[in-house]
Amino acid sequence: MPALIAHRGAATDAPANTLAAFELAWQQGADGIEGDFQLTRDGEIVCIHDAFTMRTARRPRKVTRATLAELRQLDVGAWKGEQWRGIRIPTLGEVLATVPDGKKMFIELNSGPEIVPPLKATLAASGLQDGQAIVISFDDQVIVETKRLLPQLKALWITDFKSGKKTGVRPSAQEILETLERIGADGVDCRSHATVDQAFMQTLRTAQKEVHIWTVDDVPMAKHYLQLGADSLTSNCAGWLKQQLRAELAT
């Protein structure tokens, strides 16, 4: 069965990208967690998805122009419910400290290649074992820099699909493979899409590239990717989905 990865933690039940969401994901039985990370003005790596803090903190601060201390003043829990009031933006180091032995952390880097040197230092201090941390990014140059500075680390290129009457679905499996080989990525992390079929998988598997899928929240779709042999499924309800798949396989 593919690994079930909690998208921004247990984000359905707790404020996304917070320690509360990640801790809850572990409690719910996720095989791994995924979080979004950016570099602050003073060189700290923090866990937040948007470029601005308005959506989760109700205050319009640009993450890359703020210091860690300034961002720590923001409440990023109250928007989800009164019981979450007072929750702060965590650092990468704090998120890594939640990862149990044998579990995985998908680190989505939303800054440019300049985030990789502090990432290397943070991982070195984390105590995580080889294979627990996986870097993912839409930015191909971030993947290139990750493989240059952290060659032992698995790095996945993230992509979505677009459809056009003249072009069809892009990128194709072959185009994805060409990008992966050019930037040295270990595989692709792509959106769930009809184009991800047996032929798509075969193209990448033949080249020994991994295929990870986001975001999968229902059992039929998860079973489809299970049959195709996906390496992981990122889900907003990873713990629940894992239980459902196990029940289906047991019958």
Query: If classified by CATH, what would the architecture be?
Result: Alpha-Beta Barrel
CATH class categorisation: Alpha Beta
Shape: globular
Low-confidence stretches: none
- SS-based structural class? alpha/beta
Q: Give the CA-CA distance, first to last residue.
A: 15 Å
What's the number of domains? Answer: 1
Characterize the largest beta sheet: strand count, sense, and whether it forms a barrel. 8 strands, parallel, barrel
With strands numbered from the N-terminus, the spatial order across the biggest sheet is 1-2-4-5-6-9-10-11
Order of helices and strands: EHEEHHHEHEHEEEHEHEHEH
Mean pLDDT: 97
Within CATH, the superfamily carries the name Phosphatidylinositol (PI) phosphodiesterase
What is the fold-level CATH name, i.e. the topology? Answer: TIM Barrel
Tell me what portion of residues adopts beta-strand conformation.
15-25%
Rounded to an integer, what's the Rg over CA atoms? 18 Å
Number of strands: 11
Bin the helical content.
Answer: 25-40%
Short description, anyone?
The protein is α/β, with parallel strands linked by helices. It has helices at 19-27, 54-57, 68-72, 92-96, 116-126, 140-149, 173-183, 198-206, 219-228, 238-250, and strands at 3-7, 32-39, 45-47, 104-109, 133-137, 154-159, 162-164, 168-170, 187-191, 210-214, 232-235. The protein contains ten helices and eleven strands.
